[in-house]
Amino acid sequence: MAGGGDIQWCFSQVKGTVEEDVTEGEAPPHHYLSVDPADIISTVEFNQDGELLATGDKGGRVVIFKREPESKQSMPRRGEYNVYSTFQSHEPEFDYLKSLEIEEKINKIRWLPRQNAAYSLLSTNDKTVKLWKITERDKRPDGFNLKDDEGRIKDPNAITQLRVPFFKPTELIVEASPRRVYANAHTYHINSISLNSDHETFLSGDDLRINLWHLEITDQSFNIVDIKPANMEELTEVITAAEFHPSMCNVFVYSSSKGTIRLCDMRQRALCDQHSKMFEEPEDPSNRSFFSEIISSISDVKFSHSGRYLISRDYLSVKVWDLQMDSRPIETYQVHEYLRSKLCSLYENDCIFDKFECAWNGTDTQIMTGSYNNFFRMFDRNTKRDLTLEASRENTKPKCILKPRRVCTGGKRKKDEISVDSLDFNKKILHTAWHPTENIIAVAATNNLYIFQDKDKV
To answer: How far apart are CA 119 and CA 137, in angstroms?
Structure first.
């Protein structure tokens, strides 16, 4: 896999409706209502070998794309991702005890390692995690003795010979069936699910608690983190993300709205209220402002594939942490520092509370995260080069190379630059995913899914 600075990213595919006018805001102006808000993508996830790509949306649906086999005749030769299965994972519900409506929106999807011919994934909305099994069927039994071709029971007296049933080839059918439902364990909204490296347990985290589940047991979970104070008026922080270590089954991390990451070891105690390590960067007094606490809130945290590093995303930056050093990050990358002067207006339009995700490439040498105006950022850890690219329907010609974009913060604007005042804050890249072994990325731009790949591999 090439380093990020050497990659020329080009357009591969776009999925979703053509309308551009759609926003992620709660109360958008009328001209943004041309697309159903239920179509807005809320999570993106490749499976372990990258052959499947799943998206969840605000309408509670999961759409799975499967990569077509490579062929010398097809263009591009590298197989495209086409729709494999679509199913309704969650439905809207109503909690009558609390008079609370529970959204069907899919918050997270996590694939399980493949054990047999079927695929399995976990999906969650605000309250309930479900385990889905996706199976293929291209044969059906035929030639029964007691039933006719229509499935009706035959008259026993009319049966004059014994037939041997057989399987008859049929058109491929992909079925998604719920295998387990893990419910009634979260009082607050679930923001994270993470599969353990033992492949038997997983965690689910909400604003104040993290629970540990066994995949085979749905009516019981263990509370491993609880930061809820006895008096809710004393609440000062909430959990924003949680993830298991990729190879050590006893270690997990969770991030908070105060900009801290806590690493916990389940071997030390059953209830991990006391962390083993806390990763926190001291605040620069020169940057202190009214918005400091809001923009320091961590929206996403991810272990590297090697398990040696962590990345965390706050509002303005991505930080890389070494698990051996908790005093400060070893690398800090500014995502959109030019917005620091716009924090007041971003607070007024609620954009300052947007939760951007981040992703590693397969070799842990490059990081990707989203921004506004349908921009997304790439950072190369080796060369320290960074890149701003745009997910736009203007760049949807096959093999069209993405041109780097630049934002002008003041003074005279150059030809290819865009003014910071011209950025569209309704168009935002919150969810991205990187293929586990190849330079293929999936970028969710509101209701469209863009797939880009390395030009040299097309």
So the answer is: 13
